[in-house]
Amino acid sequence: MNMKSRDTDKQADELQLLVEQVEKGHEEKQAVPIDSIDNTDMQREVDILNLPSRKEKHFINRRSHFKISKALFRFLFIVILLIVILIGAYFLEMS
């Protein structure tokens, strides 16, 4: 037998074992009567006295992000430039 054949046989044997284990587990699960299952075992226990506060649970740690578009930036630049020119003209006229 060559190496590939041995690897293929080994993989086939492993897969066969896995299939048998799954079938065996599936049969065991079906053998348990439904009435014998305790519903409290399926429910997740929650310690009501040890819950986090609402503030901790719903707090989102994000920075507020303010994005200025190019058009808004140009508009603000022109407005500030005009204000500076008007203030400069006012003080030049006063002197």
Radius of gyration, taken over Cα atoms and rounded to an integer in Å = 37 Å
Instruction: Give the averaged pLDDT, no decimals.
Output: 78
Separate helix tally = 4
- Largest sheet properties: none
The helix content is 55-70%
The helix/strand order is HHHH
How many DSSP-defined strands?
0
First CA to last CA: what distance?
107 Å
> Low-confidence runs (pLDDT<50, min 5 residues)?
none
> How much strand?
under 5%
Structural class per helix/strand content?
mainly alpha
Assign an overall shape: elongated
List keywords for this structure.
mainly alpha, 66% helix, 95 residues
Give me the secondary-structure topology.
Blueprint: H1 3-31, H2 39-42, H3 54-58, H4 70-94
TL;DR of this structure?
The protein is mainly α and 95 residues long.
Descriptive account of the structure:
It is a single chain. With 95 residues, this protein is mainly alpha-helical. It has a domain at 71-95. The protein contains 4 helices and no strands. The chain is elongated, with a radius of gyration of 37 Å.
